[in-house]
Amino acid sequence: QVELVESGGGLVQAGGSLRLSCAASGSIFRFNTMAWYRQAPGKQRELVAVITSGGPTNYADSVKGRFTFSRDNAKNTLYLEMNSLKPEDTGVYYCYASNTRRYWGQGTQVTVSS
Q: Does residue 57 contact residue 41 with C-beta atoms inside 8 Å?
């Protein structure tokens, strides 16, 4: 059973930074796709950033240049570094991974105040 556990969310003022972490139970080399999604109140869940095996990291236009998706293979952990945060970045952020099945974390709340 794969478990993804996010952490690092919180309340931050506009212009501030946060780093989200997603710890996987077991090797992240098992996954061919890893991603961060977010869901704002009253809106659908949207893709923030995605890494596929052997491919580049892709970002939503709204976060390009501000967010960085990285991975630490030794720690089986994914990170989302978020800088220059805006109120519209507010939402629940979810870690996602897939191989033959899809896995989601429980989510971590990010609130950006103006």
A: no
pLDDT of 55:
85
Q: HEC string of 56-107?
A: CEEECCCCCCCEEEEEEHHHCEEEEEECCCCHHHCEEEEEEEECCCEEECCC
Residue 3: predicted pLDDT: 94
Greater confidence, 107 or 27? 107
How far apart, in Å, are the Cα atoms of 67 and each of 18, 49, 81, 102? Answer: 10, 8, 5, 23
Q: State residue 1's pLDDT score.
A: 82
**Inter-residue contact 110 to 43 (CB < 8 Å):** no
> Which residue type sits at 35?
A
